[in-house]
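Friendly challenge for the regulars: who can give me the structure tokens for this chain first? No prize, just bragging rights.
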Amino acid sequence: MNSRRPIIALASVGVIIIAVLTFVPYSLTMVRKAGHNVAAAVQTSLGREPSSAASTFEAEMREPIVPQYDVALWYGSRGEEPEKHGVLIQTLDGKRVFASHNADTTFNPASLAKLTTTLVALKRLGPDYRFTTRVYADGKTDAAGVLDGNLYLAGNDPSFGDASANLIAKELRARGIVRVKGKILAAPGFSFNFNERAEESAEFAARVMQLKQSGTGMEEARGEELFALQSNPLREILLYMNAHSNNFVADRLGAFLGGPQQIVRVLVEELKLPPEQVSLETASGLYNNRMTPRGVLVVIKALLEEAGRHNLKADDLMPVVGCDWGTVRRRMEGTGFECSLVGKTGTLTTTDGGMSNLAGVVFTKDTEPILFAILAQGNRIWEHKQMADELLAATINGHQPAPIMDAETRRQLLPPNNLKIEQRSEIRDQSLVKKTE
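First reply, four minutes later:
Bragging rights claimed.
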């Protein structure tokens, strides 16, 4: 018996195994490329060209790029459970992925949902849309400037507040009305300083207007229309909403757009997000909602594209992190990237055990904009905020920040000088614009 035969046989088997292992990845690559070629041919034959944001999403799902940063290891070294975190940080074109972890796992986006409301509002209404508040009187004014009747405020402006009430009072006095003998009444749907109740809104607005009325309440408007107040442009309302994460404004806007399900419809039908990966109970992000980090980035990219169509920049719709007033005022401190990114926070204290999220766009001098979404589940809210800032700074370390504004700059949000009074002959019914455009 030849003692070398077993050795030769084993060596032969080894050679065969090595050859197979070498060939399999090549074969899989060829199959994958062939599949992509078939998909491209089908797309061409159908004549469909999805939106840039949607096509990017589909491309990344087909052939994800290996990230440069091990997020699971990063969180694990800090005593965190990696499965409770979702991260995606990549360039605008998606060709460079800095970090990816649970990018296609659904989490509660919390107030990141306001970015979806921002997108749909901008697409459906346009940046210059204004809400109208109409002022009516059902009596005559005497020589002493006393209105012998009631004054009515009717409108659905979600941003109506002190500045609006003061401007209406100023216009009334310019018309010779210094006192209302009757009541100041709010029509259903009217709100003042983000108050849901029209009755209370009438009371608070009347205090600001100081017209010595006999009372306040809620009632359908009637009488003669005197003039109308036009709100700040929608783009300024959206910026304020995102900077302060105002739930009232977001939910009122969402209702005006047809409700959360209409927003979801846009995300699924126009942005091509998988239906099982997006669910919105509210337009503000309160309560039970679901999105993935990748879905959030698709929304941000679509928002940038829509803003560009209106000659707007990212900071026209989202606050500058570390500079603007609001929830991002103290974020990214000490990282060197202060005032070089725009972003939106998302915080819940009890729903889903708590959420602390941050998403937006980083601007640098040496590469294209970097999109990021960092979502963290758990009740360690403050710690997760710090971790998000640290993780973002660590993953993009080495890139030179491109500040959007000076660190000492503080923009005035909802500037009162952008409110407008329109006389009756000038009034354009904005609600009709929404229905016909």
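The chain is about 40% helix and 15% strand. The chain has three domains: 5-49, 71-127+234-395, 132-231. Your move, everyone else.
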